[in-house]
Amino acid sequence: MKFFFFHLMPYLDLDPEVRAKYDSAWMVLPNSAYDPVKGHALYNRYLDELELGDQLGFDGLVLNEHHSTAYGLMPSPNLICAALARRTKNVKIAILGNATPLRDHPLMVAEELAMLDNIMGGRLISGFVRGIGIEYLVWGVNPTFSHERTYESQELIVRAWTATEPFSFEGKHYHVPWVNIWPRPFQKPHPPIWTPTNGSSETVEWAARSDHRYKYVQNLSAAAACKKYMDLYREVAARNGWEAGPENLGWGCPVYVAETDEIAVREMRPHIESLYNTFFRMPGHRFFPPGYTSTESMRRIAVDKLPIFGQQTIENLMKHGVVLCGSAETVRQQLESNAREWGFDTHIGVFHFGTLPADLTEKSLRLFASEVAPKLRHLNEPKVASELPN
Amino acid sequence: MSKRVDTVIKIKQANFTLHRAGAGEPLLYLHGIHGAASSFRVMESLARYYDVYLPEHPGFDSSDMPEWFESIHDLAYYYLDFLDALGLEHVHLAGHSLGGWIALEAAIRDPRRFRSLTLISSAGIHVKGVPKGDLFVRAPEVVFKSMFADENIAVAIMKEGQSKNNEDTFIKNRFATARAGWHPPMFNPHLAKWLERVRLPVRIIWGDCDRIFPIEYAHAFHRLLPDSTIDIIPACGHLAHIEQPHALVKSITSFIGGLPK
């Protein structure tokens, strides 16, 4: 297995009284609630934590893009990647991802990622996302075209990465008569593409196309949903004439490791609950603007009332298998059992969440790296040639 | 009074619902973002004077959402095709909110198709420095309440209308509204410069408490449309057809009635 460390980079110094005046830390919370002096310290703390991930032997670091929110201070994950590029030596850096449909010109993404891949000598993994619903309100991009723009922008970027002669791209949303990016990516044919998601059959269909075979990475979801969509990925791949293996699947979740199960729950509780109840929370109509999902899903969602819109507790998150929390042994067991049952080869640990302070973040990271990861390395790995039967 | 007749018409390979009532000169009434049904009452009154056509727009209510509906322009051309399909030559055109915007887009393209134009709390332009009432950031109930001078009316309507069927229509109409008017929000930056092409008698009807398109929008339309008169309805928000239907009908009939024959 491979182990990745995902940092959301929240603005954790939020004044609870100020936060309480607004229904969400996204979009409506004014940036007067952001103190740049504290922000400076946070950026540097978070970059230190990510660099520690490299030193501790993680396979990769994970970054993402969000806008106008205290949930994450990473409107441009490419900038954070650039800051890490020469301070890290071995890790891959997975940007999960650039929200390409929010851009008027996806070629800027193609160029920036190609630059990063060159600087890092091929350590880049590129995720592409649609952006969450509220970002269509923040940016004024029409959510009823979200899927079209997502697919078309990705197609443009991949062609720009792989073409070695100038070409003309004739899309509906993006029309570029003269595409010829410099530099082209370091990796051939291009950096690996991952599709992070909270679970959607449409995303599975896209990722599991035989000409794509993009790694499907399900994040921050209930265990039942993870299993369901990973099964679906294998099914769709088979239908498309190819066999998907663990290398095509990844699972992302918040992780906290401590000395004992009891200490872990006690220490994780306030911080993971703040992730959901302070930082993530938003009204449903802003999470799902019209057209962001199909009318059919919209109906289902209206009925279900997703838990993200209400109060969340660590007990509930553990019960639904959304988080890993416990001693190294407990976390190892749970992770091993999920990896065997769901068949993924990559785990993406959200080792920082909500208000988690630096000392606890570091403790949990070190425990995971020394006592969990080494014991699971062999799991779901492709057999090396010498082990294969003749 | 004639009974309303509901039919389905086929245009450009898709099916659309058309409500029709009354007799007299044809009046094409284009509904706003909530769909056609909330205009039935006003339609009934207008049907005493006119042959009223109240179509459900593409993507709204029970009409199909055709793939070709990608912007306000598609709706404008659709209604020109609609007139052809029904053999309508010279109609009175009226539109509320989004429907007013569609009416304007159709009228600048082919003003000769129309005898007159009535704009009721119409979308379509932007007045710099006068923000519109947001439709998507605020909770739907908050938005709906803000559409009335008397918010108690909104509360009563919402209490009545919480059926599954209404929820589906709500989702569908919200999608179609977003498709046409998400960005720039409910206007076409190029429309204002073409409005002088609307060489028609125009009546601009506005609620004095419209918090979606504030009253400045009525005055801006009045300045931009060469042959327009303006009628402000007191104690009325964005939905005159619900909040002040009598005043609305009176304004439309006195305007059309006063046109040279």
What structural category characterises the helix and strand content of chain A?
Answer: alpha/beta
Determine the mean pLDDT of chain A: 94
Shape of chain B: globular
Which two protein chains have the largest interface (Cβ within 8 Å of the partner's Cβ), and how many residues from each? A-B, 20 and 18 residues
Shape of chain A: globular
Question: Could you tell me the strand content of chain A as a percent range?
Answer: 15-25%
Helix content of chain A: 40-55%
Q: Would you list the SSEs of chain A in sequence order as H and E?
A: EHHEHEHEHHEEEHEHEHHHHEHEH
- The beta-strand count of chain B equals 8
The CATH architecture of chain A would be Alpha-Beta Barrel
How would you describe this protein?
The complex is a heterodimer of chains A (390) and B (261). With 390 residues, chain A is of the alpha/beta class. Chain A has a single domain, classed as Luciferase-like domain (TIM Barrel, Alpha-Beta Barrel). Chain A is built from 14 helices and eleven strands. In chain A, strand 5 (167-170) and strand 6 (175-179) form a beta hairpin. The longest helix of chain A has 20 residues, at 36-55. The mean pLDDT of chain A is 94. Chain B is an alpha/beta fold and 261 residues long. Helices cover 38% and strands 20% of the residues of chain B. Chain B has ten helices and eight strands. In chain B, helix 1 (40-46) packs parallel to helix 10 and helix 2 (72-86) packs across helix 3. Classes of the chains: A alpha/beta (390), B alpha/beta (261).
Write the layout of secondary structure elements.
The complex is a heterodimer of chains A (390) and B (261).
Chain A: E1 2-6, H1 16-20, H2 36-55, E2 60-63, H3 77-85, E3 92-99, H4 107-119, E4 124-129, H5 133-139, H6 146-162, E5 167-170, E6 175-179, E7 193-197, H7 201-207, E8 215-219, H8 223-239, E9 249-258, H9 261-280, H10 284-287, H11 295-304, H12 314-319, E10 324-327, H13 328-343, E11 346-350, H14 358-376
Parallel strand pairs in A: 1-2, 1-11, 2-3, 3-4, 4-7, 7-8, 8-9, 9-10, 9-11
Antiparallel strand pairs in A: 5-6
Helix pairs in contact in A: 2-14, 3-4, 4-6, 7-8, 8-13, 13-14
Chain B: E1 5-11, E2 14-21, E3 25-30, H1 40-46, E4 50-55, H2 72-86, E5 91-96, H3 98-109, E6 114-120, H4 140-145, H5 151-160, H6 164-181, H7 191-194, E7 202-207, H8 216-224, E8 228-233, H9 240-243, H10 245-257
Parallel strand pairs in B: 3-4, 3-5, 5-6, 6-7, 7-8
Antiparallel strand pairs in B: 1-2, 2-4
